[in-house]
From TrEMBL:
<feature type="region of interest" description="Disordered">
    <location>
        <begin position="164"/>
        <end position="183"/>
    </location>
</feature>
<protein>
    <submittedName>
        <fullName>Uncharacterized protein</fullName>
    </submittedName>
</protein>
Amino acid sequence: MTLDPSPLEQSPLDQPAEARNPQAQIDLQDLDLDPFETAILPILRHFLAAVTAPETQSWHIAYATAAERWGQSVGLAIAHGLSELLCAIHACREAPVTHCDALALDTRALLTADEAMILLMIRYMRRDNTERARIAVENVTHGRRDASVIRAGLKFAQRFHAGLSRRPGDPAPARSEPLRIVQ
């Protein structure tokens, strides 16, 4: 009897970098991202658009989107952390990061291989999954273990850590003592 592998074991990381087509469209749901990781995708895309076409000033939209979603204090910190990470990634790669248009409705739920690798790298770093994070960093940086990418990724992951995640249907964690009313 064989068991179905978990979604993490079926990730695009299991394919060698050469076998992945950077333009391939990956379904967002296939990555098993949490709501936070899914929500940073449009912000990530706006920053990537600003890198590839600076005249668009898409970074303004990235910061505005983050502030609108999470409020100024948290949203701007999220956007800034992503910006630092993407700048580090861009600086160490020879080829630009392929990405979908942030404003295109038909690609909202689709990812390029590069976008998927960045989101998976963030996912694994936020969950302290060191082995998978290392593989993701190598895929994102095309084989380099760039210190600035690792530093920016870990800084973002530490600030916006996933904590203990529960799936729907999982029992709530046991409390050490029951809640009581204090007057």
